[in-house]
């Protein structure tokens, strides 16, 4: 599957921002912490046009729901 933008994947940008915040709180281990930090940095630079692959979206949602 192709990558999509945050604005294509989520009804509201605030929904993605809340997911990032939850993932930051629940990240455990160096890999998850680095992954979430990278996603936050990309979102800060690109905003709603940040691209996410299906795998990245799944991983972020898994971390955010721990």
Walk me through what this model shows.
Strands 1-2 form a two-stranded antiparallel ribbon. The protein is mostly helical and about 70 residues long. Helix content is about 70%, strand content about 5%. Helix 2 crosses helix 4 (about 55-65). The model has no long low-confidence stretch (mean pLDDT about 95). The longest helix is centred in the middle third of the chain and has 18 residues, at about 30-45. The termini are far apart. About 15% of the residues are buried.
Helix and strand pattern: EHHHEH
Write down the overall mean pLDDT: 96
Total of DSSP H or I helical runs spanning 4+ residues = 4
Q: Between the first and last Cα atoms, what is the distance in angstroms? A: 25 Å
Estimated helix fraction: over 70%
Number of strands: 2
**Major sheet: order of its strands?**
1-2
Largest sheet entry: 2 strands, antiparallel
Strand content: 5-15%
Shape designation: globular
| Oligomeric grouping of the chains | single chain
Q: Please identify the structural class as seen in this structure.
A: mainly alpha
């Amino acid at each position: 599957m192709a990558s999509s933008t945050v604005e294509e994947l989520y009804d509201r940008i605030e929904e993605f921002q809340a997911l990032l915040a939850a993932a930051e709180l629940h990240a455990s281990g160096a890999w998850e912490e680095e992954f979430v930090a990278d996603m936050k940095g990309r979102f800060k630079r690109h905003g709603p046009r940040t691209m996410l692959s299906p795998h990245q979206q799944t991983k972020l949602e898994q971390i955010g729901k721990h």
